[in-house]
Design a protein that fits this description.
Chain lengths: 322, 303
């Protein structure tokens, strides 16, 4: 492979790792700082991607109208797609939070799995909503008229990293504020947080909504990178499980760890792709399963031997105190 | 409608075998085991290996028994698969959940580890058997029997209901009258108190996994007989399993049984109005309703 090819490959790897980093940052708000067990990330991933796709594409006309069905198409710029994705995901999170946040923590987990499966079923079966199992194609990319399509990925990498840094700074700021301290207090001990006069339900709700909005942004970034989405992309495996492994590997409760975990695990994941060339022919078709098996074992090993991940949580949250 | 009701009872009795194990683990170990459906998958595929590979190699006849679409191979496959999955569940506890409990990890971390287990089991099944749907026995379905009210039912489905009735009755007598069964119920009720009264909770945990695993194996095989085998079948059962468990009250075995029958019937009846693929969404909606209205379940239990 020539040098240009390697660089292009690394850029595409970095774009996806950066998008996954947005998800791990969102999950870090919920799990890392508040202890909310959301295992329906794929649902927010899906909703974010579809919301942005519907907002930014035009309604199909002419011959396309016969083959492509979508509930609306507003043909708005990319920025509105991102904002819309965040708002819709925040609203869905609010709806899920109402019945579950007052109950045991595992109920939230079960409910989020349920919503993720239900969302995927709806997009798969309802043709009128967003073209059913065939999904939407030809999504616009921001600033695409500025540059030769061959080199477009460089621009998109900058956009992804920019949004990732903005999200990172926002969360860092929130977590070091009194608001963030309440979240951590809830994670450590709900009863004592209640006794300090904090309304646990509302703080948990804010954390769930904030984290899910970030995930929605991640979904939108993904949709405009691949330019084509369909419901089978948002499986529990690619949409939820790998993001959890990324956060646990990097270190939950640490935003730098969340980003590091996304890049490390995505690096391992794509790196093992090359190793499958060494497998005997009969096993090659099943290579992705072997790779996922390794990712699953990685999670268990981390949970048992290094639960704090690569970078543990920073105990000191202010530079002002020792 | 009456026919869908009967199919719902069949589906519900398969769900019951999973939800009983799930509620026991939930009640005694206090964590949501997301890999429980995948124990069903594993049980079904172990039976597949026995029926289509090992027993054929051993030369055991695969003639159908009477009107059923299964033969002696399947009869032998049941106990072997049950024991295999029981051992697998106990082994998983030993290498994974026990170290986590010893480190005093929170129950949420155990639940996360079980999510990892779920994917690991699915991947192993995919590596060994691939992603296609498989059957225990190729060929056409046996003709259905015609009952009154225009209900058609296959002999296999009657067999399924009988197997479930038998398993649950056996479990009932075990829990009610044996020393180990009584100790299990006491631990599910209050683990601390059980330990103080001298019950060996370590052994209780092993028995819980063993029984839960064996029950799940039966459930998985029965689903394979009734419908088909698929690597994602257990994952698809996850929502109905949890809905049944919560509906019946966590740790309440009889509640889980009723909850499972309700879920089976409601899921099947829904197909009269909605696409069948929405079945698991129906389970989810019922679960949310229970959480909103009566989170402790209809028969009480813990929240």
């Amino acid at each position: 492979m020539e040098i240009g090819g390697i660089v292009a490959y690394l850029v595409s790897l970095a774009i996806l790792a950066g998008i996954y980093a947005v998800f791990t940052l969102g999950l870090n708000i919920q799990w890392g700082y508040t202890g909310l067990f959301n295992i329906g990330i794929a649902g927010f991933f899906c909703i974010g991607a579809y919301a942005s796709a519907l907002i930014t594409t035009p309604m199909p006309t002419g011959i396309y109208a016969q083959y492509v069905h979508q509930i609306f198409g507003w043909n708005l710029p990319f920025v509105f797609g991102i904002l819309g994705a965040a708002l819709v995901c925040g609203f869905i999170a609010f709806l899920i939070g109402i019945p579950t946040l007052r109950l045991r923590e595992d109920y939230l987990a079960i409910a989020t799995i349920g919503i993720a499966e239900t969302i995927r079923l709806v997009f798969n079966n309802e043709q009128w909503l967003a073209n059913g199992p065939r999904g939407l194609m030809g999504l616009p990319q921001p600033l695409q008229e500025w540059i030769d399509p061959k080199h477009y990925n460089y621009i998109y990498l900058v956009i992804v990293l920019l949004i990732m840094v903005i999200v990172y700074l926002l969360i860092e700021r929130g977590i070091r504020s009194p608001w963030g301290r309440v979240l951590r207090a809830i994670r450590e001990d709900e009863v004592s947080a209640t006794m300090s006069g904090k309304d646990i339900f509302h703080f948990k709700m804010q954390s769930l909504i904030f984290g899910s909005m970030v995930m929605g942004i991640g979904g939108a970034l993904y949709a405009h990178y691949t330019k084509a989405i369909s419901p089978d992309v948002f499986t529990p495996l690619y949409g939820t499980f790998i993001i959890w492994v990324m956060l646990m590997v990097g270190g939950s409760g640490n935003n730098k760890g969340a980003i590091l975990g996304a890049f490390v695990v995505w690096g391992i994941w794509t790196g093992t792709n090359f190793m499958t060339d060494l497998l005997p022919y009969t096993l090659k078709a099943r290579a992705p399963y072997i790779r996922f098996l390794l990712i699953g074992i990685l999670l268990e090993v981390i949970l048992i031997y290094r639960p704090q991940g690569l970078l543990g949580e920073e105990k000191k949250i202010s530079k002002m105190i020792d | 409608m009456a026919e869908l009701f009967v199919y719902g009872i069949v589906l519900g009795s398969i769900i019951a075998l999973g939800s009983i194990g799930l509620t026991l683990v939930f009640g005694i170990l206090r964590f949501a085991n997301f890999a429980h459906g995948d124990l069903m998958t594993a049980g079904a595929y172990v039976a597949l290996f026995l029926v289509t590979d090992l027993f054929r190699w051993l030369g055991i006849s695969n003639e159908n028994l009477g009107p059923l679409s299964l033969g002696w191979r399947m009869v032998f496959a049941f106990p072997i698969s049950m024991i295999t999955i029981a051992v697998l569940a106990i082994l998983l506890d030993y290498i994974l959940y026990q170290p986590l409990r010893r480190k005093r990890s929170s129950t949420v971390v155990l639940a996360m580890a079980s999510l990892g287990t779920s994917f690991i089991i699915q991947m192993i099944v995919l590596i060994l058997w691939g992603g296609d749907s498989l059957f225990y026995k190729p060929g056409i379905l046996r003709p259905a029997l015609e009952l009154s009210f225009g209900i058609k039912i296959r002999p296999d489905q009657i067999f399924i209901i009988l197997v479930v009735l038998f398993s649950i009755t056996a479990l009932h007598f075990f829990l009610k009258y044996t020393k180990m069964g009584k100790a299990m119920r006491a631990t599910a009720d209050n683990p601390e108190l059980a330990r103080i009264t001298g019950i060996d909770t370590g052994r209780i945990i092993q028995w819980t996994w063993g029984i839960g695993g064996a029950m799940a194996a039966i459930g998985g095989i029965l689903y394979g007989i009734d419908v088909q085998l698929h690597p994602g079948m257990g994952w698809g059962f996850l929502l109905p399993l949890f809905a049944a468990t919560i509906l019946g009250g966590i740790g309440n075995m009889y509640g889980a049984l009723i909850g499972a029958l309700v879920m089976g019937v409601v899921q099947q009846l829904s197909t009269a109005y909605l696409l069948p693929t929405y079945k698991s969404a129906i389970a989810f909606i019922i679960m949310i309703l229970i959480l909103l209205i009566r989170p402790q379940g209809i028969f009480g239990g813990r929240t």
